[in-house]
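Revision sheet: structure tokens.
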Amino acid sequence: MQTCLSSFSDAMISCNSCITATPGWRKRFVSVLDPSQAVVYAGNDTADKQLAILRRYTTLPIYDFQPFLAEHPAFLVYSSGGGLGGDWWPWPFEKGWIQAAKRFGAAQRA
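Predicted:
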């Protein structure tokens, strides 16, 4: 049985959870980045760019969205419902962007 991965939509919660979680939980948590969509939905891409830099110096599981989606077409998104402005991932679900990305990813695999 494959483990379902969980992405935190708030960068601060994601980092804290990946660092402080037990090893069993830690392997389930990831951070997913999409700076261009962060600008659209949050008004800035600061958190995404900071995480992109952080991944160069740590073993934290930080992935770019499109390649991650191609490999993991189903994953959970945890949202704290706000945070410091970096918790923008729930909005694309409401706007249909995630479904469009899934269709794009499926077309690329075909």
